[in-house]
Amino acid sequence: MSERIPTVETFEPIHPKKVKAKSSDNLIHTRSFTGLFRTLRMAGAGFLFLAFFGTVWLNWGGRQAVLWDLAESKFHIFGATFWPQDFILLSALLIICAFGLFAITVFAGRVWCGYTCPQSSFTWLFMWCEKVTEGERNQRIKLQAAPWSLNKLARRSAKHTLWLGISVLTGLTFVGYFTPIRPLAAELLSLQMGGVSLFWVLFFTGATYLNAGWLREAVCMHMCPYARFQSVMFDKDTLTISYDAARGEHRGPRKREVKPSDVGLGDCIDCQLCVQVCPTGIDIRDGLQMECIGCAACIDACDSIMDKMGYARGLVSYTSEHQLQGGKTHLLRPRLIGYSAVLLVMIAALVVALVGRPMVSLDVTKDRGMFRENSQGLIENIYSLKVINKTQQRQDYRLELEDAAGFQLQGKTEISLAPGEISDIPVSVVLLADKPTTSSQTLRFKVTDIDEPWIHSAADSRFVAPMNR
Ligand code: SF4
Ligand code: SF4
């Protein structure tokens, strides 16, 4: 006897009805599936979860390897430390990420949403918890409809316990990037966490639990700004996940050995599997929709059906509007080249800025008093030099004036600073001549590493003097 692919028999072969993606409880219960894109997504999400949950526990040189130390206004990332003065680089990095997202969206649509967005990744993880505790799609629909019983209570409790466990871990990890994670975890375990840390851990726990457990696709559809404006970035060559209606219609069930053309059917057997696996509950056969997050679950589902039917894969696939209209997808096109070029230039500029970042910083503040006469009757101005050692080692520095003939720096001119130490050094500058030639002159102060002279920094200030002495 020939094997029949399970199909929904209630559909007329040539007059497809609108598929209801949601069950009668108005919830989306996705069906499990396997396939190439699911494997890719799991590998990507696994890597991101490992990076997110694992990195925070790494140590480097006696401190947490990645830590945005809010109390000290420093951002440590492995061997590098960034100071508030360097945060312009962080802004540049964010702009680069935004441009990267634009470029990838022009090229391949919503791959960010489908594969790497934390909202999607956590939702898939929470859906997996749901499957483990409440069973497959049909079991979950039955459980939802069933009256409360011990079984339902136990399964629901297990699901929410898992969701909450992951949420607490996420909240703790997130806050751990801003407050050292080890003492933070110890405080949480001993129930001694309080104040600001407790507020933020609870906040991110609640956000994870709500967003991934309850809101899910609603976040993508109604709250995410990227979902709203990304369609303007699409062009006719952007890769989107689409159903090949020319090949699939008319849809309808049939036995495997029946040739579709013999019964006036296309390749779609109307099994609804593509709808049942969709996390946003849409039917890809209705065309490109804002709700589609580009997760490719429907491709995997449909390919598995095509394999069973002995048809070619790709009834639902990554394709472009041009390709669907019988043309070719143009990979190199002006908008994509433009985005990529800008992206490359910005990345190169950021690398240059990072490499050339001064590892010692100097700020000069002039004393509020304009000038004074010292004991030798010479004009003197007072300054405070703020020096920051941005390296990971103790360094010895020399302080001096650059190209300032006729002036003398007085006070401490050699200092030694520990890694990350900030020092305020009071100094004075004396005009060696009896009479000034100008009432105000720019002076350049310089700090130079004694052992590594290529590490240096400079800052300007004014020297003022009376003209009518
Ligand atoms: S239509 Fe397909 S690609 Fe889009 S969200 Fe649903 S399953 Fe994912
Ligand atoms: S497109 Fe594929 S998965 Fe969807 S109903 Fe048709 S055959 Fe089934």
Automatic annotation (TrEMBL):
Transmembrane segment boundaries: 40-60, 87-108, 161-179, 191-212, 336-356
Molecular function terms, GO-annotated: 4 iron, 4 sulfur cluster binding; metal ion binding
UniProt cross-references to PROSITE patterns, sorted A to Z: 4FE4S_FER_1, 4FE4S_FER_2
Alphabetical keyword list: 4Fe-4S, Electron transport, Iron, Iron-sulfur, Membrane, Metal-binding, Transmembrane, Transmembrane helix, Transport
GO cellular component, one term: plasma membrane
UniProt KW Metal-binding keyword: yes
Domain 4Fe-4S ferredoxin-type: 259-287
SUPFAM superfamilies for this protein: 4Fe-4S ferredoxins
Pfam family, one: Fer4_18
Name of the protein described by the UniProt record: Cytochrome c oxidase accessory protein CcoG
Organism of origin: Pseudomonas palleroniana
Organism taxonomic ancestry: Bacteria, Pseudomonadati, Pseudomonadota, Gammaproteobacteria, Pseudomonadales
